[in-house]
Structure formats: structure tokens, C-alpha cells
Backbone:
């Protein structure tokens, strides 16, 4: 039953997340927490595994559809910041888990509730975010570092959060923001998995769960893009709001259960 639960949750989260543009991590994390089939550390590891096919497909589709030139210096700076953030986020996460695992779950869940509420108000256009142009490499590096560390500590993909952050600070680069978001998630997750490979190893990973996650993630990504292609754009915003309300209720339920 564990494999079936993970298969259904992963398929649903990735398909709906990509179809709506919100990103699958925001949906996957609350679902995995609700099932509570593994520890908070294992859940974070499995989410990192599930994101690998998504990132490959996202990258392929970006370069297939985007014909505009890419600022590779900015991409490299963002990648360096994301790698640093991934390392810091993982070490901080491990320290907090050893100190108080319940507190980590509470912080993760509460922060997700806050993020969902902010995104909901953003979609409802009740909150105006002041656009602030960032030009220096140092600020790009810091922004990427903070986002990457947050992704690793909170245990979710963060595509929607990354896009919101980059479109706030780079409002004139709407075409490049998706690539920078992918770079941050990819570097954060790969850095985390590399650290695991070099330290504790993958001995604690259930091979059956890993295979199920990789397969359902790939299928969910392809289905999500197919749905997104045929859904009229005028329905995307209402659908996103409905999904955010659903995920917000789910995350609030998880938070209540932790106290």
C-alpha cells in the first residue's frame, strides 16, 4: 500500500502542479506529510528524488520553447548561490532534526501555510509586491542562496516560490525567470543528493519507492504539460486559486495534527 500511496500522491502533485503552473512541490510536501509513511528526513529525500525527472523535462521544454538569448553569467551566479544554499540548508536541516524533529515539522508546515496564504493573496491581486530591480551579481547570488536553503530546509521543490521571487526582483526578465528557478531547484536538490552519496549513502532509500517515484514523476510531468497546453489561459488563475485553497486546508490540517 505504501508504494500505491506514493504513486498516487506523486502523480497527482506533479500533474496538477505543472498543469496549473504552481509547481508540484507545494502540493507534494503536504500530501507526503499527511500520509506520514516515513520520517521528515526520508520524506525530504524522496521528494528530491521525485523532482529529478521533473527538472529534466522542465529544462528540455524551456530550451525548446525559448528562443531568446540566455544570460549565462547570471545563470552561473545563480547556480553558485544555489549550491551554497543547498549545502547550508541541508546542514541546518540535519542539525535541527537532531535537536528536535517535531519542531522541524512544525516550522516546515507553518512556513508552508504562510507561503500558501501569500501566494493566494498574490493570485487574488490583493497584495501588491513592490518591484525592485536587482543588477549586481552579489544580490543575485544571495537571492539564489536564500531560496535554495529555504527549499532544502522546507523539503519541497519551490518552483512557484522561486518564480515569484525572481519576477519580483527581475520584473523585466519574465522569459528568463523560469530558467533561473529551474537552476535553483536543480542545484539545491542535486547538492543535497550528492552530500548524501558522499556521507551516509543511499542505503536507507527503499529501491522500490525510488523506482515508483521516478516513474510516476515522469508520467505526471508529461500529463501535466499536456493538460496545461489545452487548458484556456483564462481558467489558469481560478484553477490555481482553487488548488491553493485545497493545499492550504491540507497543510493547516497537518499543522493542527502536530500540536
Residues:
Amino acid at each position: 500500500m505504501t508504494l500505491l500511496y506514493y504513486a498516487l500522491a506523486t502523480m497527482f502533485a506533479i500533474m496538477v502542479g505543472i498543469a496549473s503552473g504552481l509547481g508540484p512541490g507545494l502540493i507534494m510536501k503536504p500530501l507526503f506529510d499527511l500520509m506520514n509513511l516515513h520520517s521528515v528526513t526520508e520524506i525530504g529525500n524522496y521528494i528530491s528524488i521525485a523532482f529529478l525527472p521533473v527538472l529534466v523535462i522542465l529544462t528540455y521544454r524551456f530550451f525548446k520553447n525559448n528562443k531568446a538569448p540566455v544570460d549565462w553569467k547570471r545563470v552561473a551566479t545563480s547556480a553558485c548561490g544555489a549550491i551554497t544554499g543547498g549545502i547550508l540548508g541541508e546542514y541546518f536541516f540535519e542539525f535541527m532534526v537532531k535537536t528536535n524533529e517535531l519542531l522541524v515539522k512544525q516550522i516546515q508546515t507553518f512556513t508552508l501555510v504562510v507561503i500558501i496564504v501569500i501566494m493566494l493573496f498574490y493570485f487574488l491581486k490583493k497584495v501588491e509586491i513592490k518591484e525592485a530591480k536587482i543588477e549586481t551579481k552579489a544580490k543575485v547570488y544571495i537571492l539564489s542562496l536564500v531560496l535554495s536553503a529555504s527549499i532544502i530546509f522546507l523539503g519541497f521543490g519551490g518552483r512557484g516560490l522561486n518564480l515569484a521571487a525572481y519576477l519580483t526582483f527581475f520584473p523585466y526578465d519574465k522569459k528568463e525567470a523560469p530558467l533561473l528557478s529551474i537552476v535553483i531547484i536543480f542545484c539545491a536538490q542535486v547538492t543535497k543528493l550528492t552530500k548524501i552519496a558522499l556521507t551516509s549513502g543511499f542505503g536507507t532509500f527503499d529501491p522500490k519507492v525510488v523506482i515508483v517515484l521516478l516513474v510516476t514523476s515522469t508520467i505526471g510531468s508529461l500529463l501535466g504539460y499536456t493538460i496545461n497546453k489545452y487548458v484556456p489561459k483564462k481558467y489558469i488563475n481560478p484553477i490555481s486559486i482553487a488548488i491553493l485553497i485545497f493545499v492550504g486546508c491540507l497543510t493547516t490540517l497537518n499543522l493542527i495534527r502536530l500540536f
